[in-house]
Amino acid sequence: MSTLSRMSLRIRVRPLRSASAPGVETTLGAVVVVLFALVALAAPLLAPYDPHAFSGQPLERPSPAHPLGTNDAGQDILSELLYGARISLAAGLGAALGTVALGLLVGAIAGYAGGPLDLLLMRLVDVMLTLPRLPFLILLAAFLGSGLVQTMTIISLLFWPATARVIRAQVQSQRQRGYVRMARNFGAGTGYVLRRHILPSIAPLIAFGLVAAAGRAVAMEAGLAFLGLGDPTAKSWGLMMRFALNLPGLLLTDRWLWWLLPPGLCITLLILALSYLGMGLEERWQPRLRRR
Amino acid sequence: MTEPLLSVQDLHVHFLAEPADGRGAGAVRAVDGVSFDLAAGQALAIVGETGSGKTSIGRALLGLHPPGSTWGSIRLAGLELVGSAEAEWRPLRWRRIAMAVQSAGTAFDPVYRIGEQIAEPMREHLGLPADEAATRAGALARRVGLEARHLRAYPHQLSGGEKQRAMLAMALSCEPEVLIVDEPTSGQDVLSRAQLLDLLRQVRVETGLCLILISHDLAAAAQVAERVAVLYAGKLVEVGTAREVLEQPRHPYTWGLLNAYPNMTTARDLRGIRGHSPDPSDPPSGCRFHPRCTQAVDLCRQAKPPLVEIGGRLIACHLGGLQTLLQASDLRKAFSSNGKGEVVTAVRGVSLEVYEGEVVALVGETGSGKTTLGRLLVGLLDADSGHVVFEGQDLAALNGRERKALRRRIQFVAQDPFDAISPRLTVAAIVREPLDVQRFGSVPERAKKVRDALRAVGLPAEPPFLERRAHELSGGQLQRVAIARALVLDPKMIVADEPVSMLDASEQAKVINLLKEVQSERGMGLLLVSHDLALVRKVADRILVMRQGQVVEGGPASRVVTRPQHEYTHALLQAAPALGWEVGQV
Amino acid sequence: MRARITSYLVTLWVVLTLNFLLPRLLPGDPLAALLDPQSSDYVFDAEVRAALEACYGLDRPLLVQYGAYLRGAVTGDLGQSIRLNEPVGELLTGHLPWTLLLTGSALGLASLVGLLGGAEAAWRRGSAADRLLTAVSVVTSNAPVYFLGMMLLIVFGAELGWFPLAGGRTPFSHYDSIPAATADVVKHLVLPALTLTLSLLGIQFLLVRNNMVAILGEDFMLVARAKGLKPARLKWRHALRNTLLPFVAHLAAQAGLAITGAVFIETLFQYPGMGRLIFEAVGARDYPVIQGVFLLVAIVVLTANLLADWLNTRLDPRLAEEVSR
Predict the structure, then answer these.
(1) I want to staple B415 with a disulfide (CB 3.0 to 4.6 A). Which of A57, B498, B506, C198 is the partner?
(2) Residues of the domain holding C51
């Protein structure tokens, strides 16, 4: 392992739990995520209009008919916002699954196999982690084309190395534990060791990894859409912001208040909620070493 | 007498426990009322297991605990330190009280050179310029056996032992009046441990500073300090001179600790203290040692024992330390043999004690009077003169009923089980006999006691075996049945007269280990009468050597075996069975 | 250090090769990428395509193409921009300074404030100020940078009118003096740089704070305290000095994050840097420019990595020894 990667293991970015009651943020995060999921599922019931339908005049101000007004094409912004939750969550879920699946595969193989294969895979992880993420993402997106599936694929391709490294470290440490060596001593095979000792030990990492990856994927999807690299037909929050900002002089009127701010707030809230949930999960499953 | 340099009175250190496992925060009573004085130049060893609070005492002496967690009094040359603000502590630290911490491996800042770190306090406290501090650091390093290259090195480049030395050099840098050394020998191999202890002794001699050694290492304590304070669960249980405390421990905990401590000079097996160390956030009521103490009485559960002076040392025990179970003074017994009026004096003025939980071996040849003495002690024979006092009662002064009651407390195991066990009775009846005699409980209760006693000696407690008779059993089984019979009344003391001499070697080992195990678990006193020195040294705490009716030598088993004083003991040792060269050369 | 340089060269080679292979591996051929079917000048005619292929050297064997590509990359010849019909190399050199100005000032500011603030928060861990700063940092480090930027833009640009809404300098302006030019550039820099600083600061702060809290619990800090050192010496010379190690190790990752942030910020503020360039290139499917930006940014980030590594070997004697061995 290179020095850089060894150093990064020493780095702790997540805040240590302060003296406050445990899990308040975690619970809050979970509640917000569930709320967004419900909104996404119930979007057709909640939304006053089809987000693609031209249900009003362009650039209407908020009114009882259009609580958040309409966009420059005369589509209902509230409906766009509600349907946008579907895109964000779908991208988050899909990309998170892809990221963790890839990371699990590579990490478990590297950690369990060891030797030259491990070395090779970890070098690949090192290289991937050094690459500037967004430009690489843009490059991939430019050539792979736009669309939700492509976006999820691209995000997965980019985010797996971090997960792989964590999984590999865990698998490797488990493999060298006394009880695994004892199990082998009792004649246990690879399958047994994997099933009985290694998988249970990485299960919490997978859960935490999924939530963390979902948070990053939601942010990235919105970012790609914002940059115009997403599906141009999908009603996503990032795209809403992009179209809003494309309107000349948007910021000089108060139009941003109902057009730009709601998707921005939604995306921020969802990412924060996922992030708090992830921190809570991580802390729960990897409690700090007790003080000496 | 002048005021001591360092006076610690009723020191408490309580922490708020981190609610790590989700439970509410509770106070951890790391140190709970500890007092000791130390004059200039004295050395005190604070000995205790992990978690006993000894490191917390060291840190309290430097004011390193969070504000509000320490109270009581710490006076350094009359200056009260407890309650001082951080800014008041700072000039004292290292300048007057310095500490070499336990984990020297991680005690140095990894990014600065060792020399710089040794010089740092001299620059801070003595205001020395960099070059002068460096020169003095060099001198200090030489004193602890390090070289200039060690000073230029970074911490990760030094070995554990070198870091310990550097730590010591750093602690000495400002010539403190009090030096605290926390576990200097933990994690060290035997040789560097010895070197380090030498170094500590040498430093003491050269500087005349006041030393506090914090350690779980009893031998280290004895080698460096004159006085030893034994700490258990945040409280001192015994304080005295190192020699007294370690050779003749009086507190049951010290006694247990010594038994658990590996020692090259004794052949005896190690024995742990029963039970577990207490949870410091929820210590036991009363005496904190009572759940593990074999002699605990109701008072021990209810009240905290004060640390009081008993026989020249301080002991915190309601019973005044280890109880004397059996005490004999000046016992004499003569028999008129063969009816011709010729008098054979079997026992001539023997005095001895057996303490709670102690195994005493009475060793001598046939005819030395040891069997007679054994019978005198349990009251099977009456002495011509002298007294036997068991648990405070003089045997001679007891009436019949009292004697019968006494039988529950002291039991006898005879040499020959074939003789001591009726061939007509079944195993169940044999073991039940004392219960029947004492009219103990109901019939089912007696049956249960019988089964428990049989299990305790490793025999089956099921019907087919219970119905066996003496002739169906082997010698070893029979002796076990005899021991079970002795145990069935839960006695406090067993006198065993040659309990294994009739058995094969392999059975001997098993039965003697069994006796030891039962004794240790129940905290009984055991007087082992035997001719076999090689055997008893495996289990005995003390050995008394008897010849011609007198005790000619007595002392800790290790000393009697390795450094016999009396020529008769020497002869016994020479005669002890040895496989080839082994024992004969001891 | 040599091993590390080698490893970075390997990474650089991977970047170059990816840049070369991606258009050739992905669906469609490089020409399809060059000439998008959706764009107006899509070439249907097979003959014209063949001519174009010959022009771009696509009819030659892959290895020969690869060699030519590498030679071009080394000499700075990254092809022509389709949109602007200018050499990609010149476009890059025109835009790079703006991005370096933006990311450099933001990184510097965030590092300084993060180090000092994080150290103070760790020193007073558990205090109200610490908890507030930690909570705020979690929010700012998680909020999308473009959202932060929008908020700043709305408040300080649109509502208060203190700073210009867009651009790197006032359009069509001619400056009388260097100070005037500098003032104009700085005025345009403030909001974008502030946005990026805020976004990076949260992570920097948490990183410094949490690592320093851990370091404060180390044995050597207890010993330093027992040595009677002054609080300032404990805090700065021992605790922060050791916190610098993980901080610097993470600086390289910060550089990558700063670049990511810059892409969004330059898009939002229409700031004339590399982010803006790649954004416009994406819009126009100007693939040579996208590839060029990726390559240059990769080199910048790799250099930052190398610098951070080198700095850490200077700061951490344990690493220094490993290197010399």
Answers:
(1) B498
(2) 16-75
Point out the residue among B111, B120, B154 whose CB comes nearest to the CB of C227: B120
Give residue for tokens 């859960």.
Answer: A207
Closest CA to C268 of C195, C170, C324: C195
Count the domains in chain C: 2
At B433, list the tokens: 């006999």
Q: In this complex, do B22 and A287 lie within 8 Å of one another by their Cβ atoms? A: no
Considering the domain boundaries, does residue C209 fall inside one? yes
Q: Cβ contact (<8 Å) for C230 and B62?
A: no
Q: How confident is the model at residue A15 (pLDDT cuts 50, 70, 90)?
A: very low
Q: Give C120 to chain A, closest Cα distance, Å.
A: 15
- With a cut of 50, which residues of chain C have pLDDT below it? 323-325
Distances in Å between the Cα of C10 and the Cα atoms of A1, A123, B178, C13, C17 are 15, 10, 59, 5, 10
Residue among C225, C228, C316 minimizing CB distance to B111: C316
CATH of the domain at C219: 1.10.3720.10
Say which CATH superfamily domain A67-289 falls into.
Answer: MetI-like (1.10.3720.10)
Of B57, B61, B51, nearest to B13 by C-alpha is B57
In this structure, are C63 and C104 located in the same domain? Answer: no
**ipTM attached to this prediction:** 0.79
Q: At what angle do helices A115-130 and C2-25 cross, to 10 degrees?
A: 80
**Is-contact C276 C270, C-beta < 8 A?**
yes
Strand order of the β-sheet with B227-232 is: B97-100, B178-182, B210-215, B43-47, B227-232, B235-241, B313-315, B308-310
**Beta carbons of A291 and B22 less than 8 Å apart:** no
- Angle at C28 (CA atoms; ends C27, C33), nearest 5 degrees: 110
Residues C195, C119 within the same domain: yes
- How many Å apart are CA C272 and CA B409, to the nearest integer? 99
Identify whether residues C55 and C199 lie together within a single domain. Answer: no
Beta strands (DSSP E) in B391-522 are 393-394, 410-413, 493-497
Give the pLDDT of residue C45.
65
Tell me, yes or no, if B18 comes closer than 8 A to chain A by beta carbon. Answer: yes
The neighbouring-strand residues paired with B553 are B545
C84 is a domain residue: no
Q: B20 and A287 in contact by Cβ < 8 A?
A: yes
Q: Which of B111, B116, B181 to probe the C interface (max C CBs under 10 A)?
A: B111
In this structure, the answer to whether residues C40 and C105 fall within a common structural domain is: no
Residues C142, C273, single domain; the answer is yes
Q: What is the amino acid identity at position B11?
A: L
Strands, E assignment, chain C: none
Same domain, C162 and C206: yes
* Contact assignment for A290 to B20 by CB distance below 8 Å: yes
Put simply, whether C127 touches B (Cβ < 8 Å) is no
CB nearest to C210's CB, from A15, A133, A135: A15
Same domain, C162 and C212: yes
Q: Is B333 helix (H, G, I), strand (E, B) or coil?
A: strand
DSSP-derived letter for residue A17 is P
Q: Is residue C6 part of a domain?
A: no
User: For residue C316, which residues of chain B lie inside 8 Å, CB to CB?
Assistant: 110-111
Whether C205 and C107 map to the same domain: the answer is: yes
Q: Is B417 left (phi over 0), alpha (psi -120 to 50) or beta?
A: alpha
- Whether the predicted model's global pTM rises above the 0.90 cut: no
Domain boundaries, chain A: 67-289
Interface check for B312 against chain A (CB to CB < 8 A): the answer is no
C228 CB neighbours in chain B (<8 A) are 89-95, 121, 124-125
Is B124 in contact with C245 (Cβ distance < 8 A)? no
Contact state of C259 with A135 under an 8 Å Cβ cutoff = yes
- For the stretch B328-375, pLDDT in tens is 888 888 887 666 667 788 888 888 888 888 889 998 888 888 888 888
Q: Which chains touch A (3 or more CB pairs under 8 A)?
A: B, C
